[in-house]
Design goal:
Helix content is 29%, strand content 31%. The protein is α+β, with helices and mostly antiparallel strands.
Length: 279
């Protein structure tokens, strides 16, 4: 369990107070980075002014309705700081709160003992010496690059294809798609959007970020072809090492990736959180 404080006063952490926070050497933040974060998210971090302990919050995957506990200091104030942060998320209308991967790795058992639970588990897959299968494209399929005007249709498809927790935030996806190292392609048949694939690359390594097909169009080979299309594009740019993550419960996706030669690395990521509202 978290260590319970006797009497602790916590207050909102303002960006001007960032230099006073006692960040450990392995923090994800520097004082300058923390100040910038607090300017962007001014209501989502708290601290104990006496000890310098803190709980830094944000938005999970850019979501406006899912909060994130990004980092906390380990000490006597930790329990109260986390409880205060969760209360703020609830007051601000967030539907859930999730631990960052760093926070889950550091204190998963402590959160679980305090009533948090595993919301999902991600499996890590990897394809080395990537080689495209060059599958024949379905005759009715047309592929094009993503443009901002496609956002509404892509968002609608995304909500059909994935559970609520894994929906993309439209604004966050738009920022993601504009990154230099990101590519997004849409698949249409008869003018109707049926699926999309996105990937990113860095230092000659690729990552399949998203593969989605509208459920009503599943089983027609669109997903297989989109995956092959993405692998082929990465292969043509010199990438031979491709990674991805998928939900443990998404057996159809796992079967597809394994058919293409992706193998489980044995690495998993636990998604630890709390549901704050059902609405």
């Amino acid at each position: 369990m978290f260590r319970q404080p006797k009497q602790v006063m916590v207050s909102l952490l303002a960006y001007g107070e960032a230099p006073r926070v006692r960040l450990p050497w392995d923090s994800r933040f520097t004082p300058a980075m923390l100040r910038g974060h607090l300017e962007l998210h001014p209501r989502l971090s708290f601290w104990n002014q006496t000890t310098g302990e803190y709980a830094i919050g944000g938005r999970w995957r850019g979501r406006r309705d899912v909060g994130a506990v990004l980092e906390t200091s380990k000490g006597n104030s930790q329990s109260l700081l986390v409880e205060t942060l969760v209360t703020r998320f609830r007051e601000d209308g967030f539907r859930a709160v999730v631990l960052s991967q760093d926070e889950a790795d550091a204190a998963c058992s402590l959160y679980l003992a305090c009533g948090w639970r595993k919301l999902d588990r991600l499996l890590v897959y990897r394809l080395t010496d990537a080689w495209p299968y060059d599958r024949q494209k379905p005759t009715d399929l047309a592929v094009s690059s993503f443009h901002p005007g496609d956002l509404a249709g892509l968002t609608s498809l995304d909500r059909e294809a994935f559970p609520w927790l894994w929906w993309n935030d439209p604004s966050d996806f738009l920022a993601y798609s504009s990154s230099e190292n990101v590519a997004v392609f849409l698949a249409r048949a008869g003018g109707r959007l049926l699926g999309y694939v996105s990937y990113s690359s860095r230092n000659n390594r690729g990552h399949l970020d998203r593969l989605a097909v509208r459920p009503a169009s599943a089983g027609k080979g669109y997903g297989s072809w989109l995956l092959d299309f993405a692998v082929r594009r990465m292969w043509q740019s010199g990438i031979r090492d491709i990674g991805l993550t998928t939900q443990e419960t998404n057996l159809a996706a796992q079967e597809l990736y394994q058919r293409f030669g992706f193998v489980k690395t044995g690495e998993t990521h636990e998604v630890i959180g709390q549901e704050l509202s059902k609405t």
